[in-house]
Amino acid sequence: MRKQHSSSCSSHLFPPSSMMMMMIIILFQVCSAQNLINSTCKTLAGSNPNIDYNFCRTSLQAAPASQCAALQGLGMISIRLIRYNVTDTRCSIKQLLRNKRWDPYTRQCLNDCFDLFSDAIPSVKEAMKSFNAKRFDDANVQITSIMDASTTCEDGFKDRTGVVSPLTKRNDDAFRLSAIALSFMRIIQTRSA
């Protein structure tokens, strides 16, 4: 005859009152992180016309570890989001260039964008290093260059009437994520001054 286990392992490790306290602490931490994201995004959106509250909030909430992050951590997460965007956009452009249907002008714009986003990858990596070292002026220059790259990429398509950019959303996201990161740096710099 087999011996049956009468209860779960967790009840042997922690008495019910301890488990309840742990659940309350975890819930409090999640709520605190949500409040920090919400309040910070509200502040950023209120002070910068390039930042949309909902975009800021949903971008940060979707990032791993954002639920546990303090302000400095959210700043780093915002830069990581730029890195993911830039890397993914470069990959997407590479895929688009494989398609032979593009007219010569659009193909040239895509090549230009590929170069811009290729250059943005080391810039965002340097921005992460600068941010961690609290060299916010350097990080600001590096993030601004990424912002400029997304704008330059998009503007290239607009130079010719009738040409539609296949990268509008990606460029817009890179620009908006950069605006968020720059605003985080400004707040962190102000608080540490």
UniProtKB/TrEMBL annotation:
Gene3D superfamilies linked to this entry: Invertase/pectin methylesterase inhibitor family protein (1.20.140.40)
Superkingdom, taxonomy of origin: Eukaryota
Signal is among the record's keywords: yes
Keyword Glycosyltransferase recorded: no
Database matches in SMART domains: PMEI (SM00856)
Keywords linked to the UniProt accession: Disulfide bond, Signal
Signal peptide positions (record): 1-33
Domain Pectinesterase inhibitor: 32-184
GO MF, one example: enzyme inhibitor activity
Pfam families: PMEI
GO cellular component, one term: extracellular region
Family the entry assigns: Belongs to the PMEI family.
Protein name: Pectinesterase inhibitor domain-containing protein
Naturally occurring in which organism (per UniProt): Perilla frutescens var. hirtella
